[in-house]
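hey can u check if this looks right to u? its 321 residues, i copy pasted from the old doc so theres a chance i mangled smth
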Amino acid sequence: MPTSPSEKKARRKSDNLVFFICFIIAAIFWLLIKLSGVYNETYHFKVNYSNVPDGKNLSRVIDSTLDVTIKAKGFTILRLNLFENMKNLNINLKNMGLMSREGNVYYVNTDMLKTKIGKAIGIPNSDVKFSKSTLGFVLEQLSKKVVPVSANLDLGFEEQYDLYENPVVTPSKIKVFGPPSILDTLSGVFTQKVILKKVDADRKIGVGILNPAPGKLQFDPEIVNITIRVEKFTESSIETPVDLSGVKLKIKTFPAIVKVNFQVAQKDFNNVQPGQFKVVPETKGVNLHIVQELHLVLTKKPDFIRNEWITPANVEFLIIK
């Protein structure tokens, strides 16, 4: 009985499926055979150094790259290529035996890295080869300088609230360790920037130091405290006579009594007294026979007020003969 076209088409699809399955199985076996083989693979690493010994600074890197050849099975190499960082090699100088060549030039023996790399990969140390026997770098002896610390603040306050006094940094000075070439020009340091909004109470903040030469300077301590005192302020005013004791000519001002306006913390409001203020006319370099008005200046005030202004700011006067 002849085969129908639909049966031929179904048989062809079945044959293709069998061929595809056989191909996949063969490919898997081929891959397993290849991955079970041993290969040499070379990786090009960028070398990074960390944990420089106390009292020294890494000023220059002589050997910044290293080629590492690994002898391992294909399975291991595939894992390394897929899941490991095979571009950067981090060397902890704290755990390495540093050797000195001349001056400030130091080096480490790469043989000391074989155990670390072999253990991490899971292969014998003898299967790890390096393109260089040593890695060199320059370590400078650090100098010390004591400098003041300034607070770097960006503050926003709730309505009527403000700083009661300048922020206090504790300690006010710190030790800075670094190359003499940098310390010679360093007169002070700032804290990291602190941003606070809607402040309405005292704050004490621990903050790090802003490093003007990252990687070259070290600080002791690395953290300082900034204390911020905040109070609620109100506007007030007080009347006081214009003091004419310093005027050479005998004059009379109009008005004779003026108002000093200012802001004061609510806690200090009752401490404001008229005798704490002194307003005088500005007469230096002024020809009293020509001008008609004198500008007023506040020459005495209590330390706890701020943002002062006088009304009126100028007064008319009359010379009394």
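The mean pLDDT is 86.
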